[in-house]
Task: inverse folding
């Protein structure tokens, strides 16, 4: 017999009460034609949702994704605002034209980016998981300089090229890079190195402080680690410059 899962994978929704039964009228009135709004007057939605609506609070969406995908998500909770602020700390907002975020989850870092970025700074956000991406699209659909893409961040070079964007100022990554196959990780970092403009950075969050410092040093000349104690679990950010190639 298969044991029942310890944690329910979806919230249990109680059945709605049955609709009250109403007796039909003795005579059925003629249906009246309803005025139809002309199509041209219908309000255009500037960013229609490409994915389904995601229900529940952010922590629940992340926990659910973690329980079903494990290492592909890497963290059971969204980053704290301390982590989100630390990863964007030191960005020159006056000069930044494009910032790309890879593996945005429910958007705690995106939210801080939106607070700081000028309206002229393009913020491109990529998330693979459709439920998490649905949350991002709902949350940032009214922010004109934010584009949320549901897709594989390892293809972000192509996604930039399709949009005619030759380079970016900073790459912020929440991707679980250490659990990616070595060749894929190297390819993502090589794309970052190719697309980051001079003076830019690759920034990677982690919930295993300093454990992968040596790994990032294999790829970058200059790696600084910023510890973030107020996160669940405590973590930090690698800020990397000078790709070794
Ligand atoms: C550790 S979570 C970080 C989420 C968010 N940035 C935060 O700080 O709370 C990693 C995220 O990367 C996403 N991810 C994993 N592989 C991906 C891929 N190949 N392309 C895009 N997103 C990916 C996961 O779905 C997850 O949302």
Result:
């Amino acid at each position: 017999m298969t044991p029942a899962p310890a944690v329910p994978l979806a919230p249990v929704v109680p059945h709605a009460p049955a609709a009250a039964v109403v007796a039909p009228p003795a005579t059925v009135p003629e249906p009246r034609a309803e005025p139809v709004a002309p199509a041209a007057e219908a309000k255009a939605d500037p960013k229609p949702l490409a994915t389904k609506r995601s229900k529940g609070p952010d922590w629940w969406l992340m926990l659910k994704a973690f329980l079903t995908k494990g290492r592909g998500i890497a963290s059971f909770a969204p980053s704290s605002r301390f982590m989100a602020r630390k990863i964007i700390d030191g960005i020159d907002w006056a000069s930044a034209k494009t910032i790309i975020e890879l593996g945005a989850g429910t958007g705690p870092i995106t939210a801080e980016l939106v607070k700081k970025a000028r309206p002229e700074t393009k913020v491109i956000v990529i998330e693979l998981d459709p439920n998490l991406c649905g949350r991002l699209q709902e949350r940032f659909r009214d922010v004109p300089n934010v584009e949320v893409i549901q897709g594989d961040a390892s293809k972000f070079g192509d996604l930039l090229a399709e949009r005619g964007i030759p380079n970016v100022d900073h790459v912020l990554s929440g991707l679980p890079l250490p659990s990616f196959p070595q060749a894929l990780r190297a390819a993502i970092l090589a794309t970052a190195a190719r697309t980051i403009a001079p003076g830019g950075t690759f920034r990677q969050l982690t919930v295993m402080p300093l454990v992968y410092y040596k790994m990032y040093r294999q790829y970058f000349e200059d790696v600084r680690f910023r510890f973030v104690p107020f996160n669940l679990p405590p973590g930090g950010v690698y800020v990397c410059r000078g790709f070794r190639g």
